[in-house]
Write a structure and sequence with these properties.
Elements lengths: L5 E5 L8 H6 L12 E6 L8 E6 L12 E5 L4 E6 L8 H4 L7 E5 L5 E5 L12 E5 L5 E5 L1 H18 L11 H12 L7 H6 L5 H11 L2 H17 L14
Antiparallel strand pairs: 1-3, 1-5, 2-3, 4-5, 6-7, 8-9
């Protein structure tokens, strides 16, 4: 059985869109460069539009069938097709993008483990893809690629909040912010966005905190914070007006 999402772009006629057309339609994440894409013209698709049906993999089962699919809009020109049969919903193996970074598995709402990338290490470095360029001083450096910068800045913000005594980034977040965080982090390794994550019911208030912890290297941060607390307890600061070693 093929488990996957289907996609539709209105107004196109070529059965295989270019990378630029996919990006402009807002579904470039679903078809990374070089992906095996199947396409078919559709003259009465979602919303009654004509366009192109797309799927990752073979053309088998590639058809517009409202009785078998639920279609949700991505924007004004693109839609995602979701199987009505829950047994046909894709999982992490079906949606894996082929990338392999420093990851940690997190159990999500479908009862399966998804690999979440460690985005920001304690030293500030990252395992996200980077290109070699020039900084503002004209010196060579490794810069996080544009498509991952929002995720890196998010991990850095969560890290700094935790470091100054905040919570691991999710307590005061809105559902939209939590869903965006999940889409950015899971989107590194999988062909998903907010729509696919919501459809699969992957996110809840517990695993959202776990995802936040992973992207900021939470295990090592927790260990560091614990060591600092133990050190502070073993060597407390002297009371005002006293000297180290004086009797109180």
């Amino acid at each position: 059985m093929i488990r996957r999402f289907l996609y539709f772009i209105a107004g196109l006629s070529a059965p295989r869109p270019t990378d630029q057309q996919l990006a402009e339609a807002g579904i470039g994440y679903a078809f990374p460069h070089g992906s095996p894409i199947s396409g078919a013209e559709c003259h009465n698709g979602p919303g009654g539009h004509s366009g192109v049906l797309l799927a990752h993999g073979p053309a088998t089962g590639l058809r517009f069938s409202p009785s078998e699919q639920i279609w949700r809009p991505v924007n004004k020109t693109a839609w995602v097709g979701i199987p009505r049969n829950s047994a046909e919903l894709p999982g992490p193996d079906d949606l894996f993008s082929g990338r392999c970074l420093d990851n940690k598995p997190v159990l999500l709402g479908d009862g399966r483990y998804w690999q979440v990338p460690i985005v920001r290490f304690l030293n500030g470095h990252t395992g996200l893809p980077r290109f070699i360029g020039l900084d503002e001083k004209g010196e060579a450096c490794a810069l996080v690629k544009a498509e991952y910068r929002e995720l890196y800045h998010l991990a850095d913000e969560i890290f700094r909040n935790e470091l100054i005594g905040g919570v691991a980034g999710t307590g005061a977040c809105t559902p939209a912010e939590l869903l965006r965080m999940a889409a950015l982090s899971l989107g590194v390794n999988y062909r998903v966005s907010e729509i696919e994550i919501a459809t699969l019911q992957l996110l809840d208030t517990v695993n959202a905190t776990q995802i936040a912890s992973v992207i900021m290297d939470g295990d090592n941060l927790a260990q560091l914070m614990d060591e600092l607390r133990k050190k502070k307890a073993a060597d407390p600061e002297p009371l005002p007006g006293s000297k180290t070693g004086d009797a109180v």
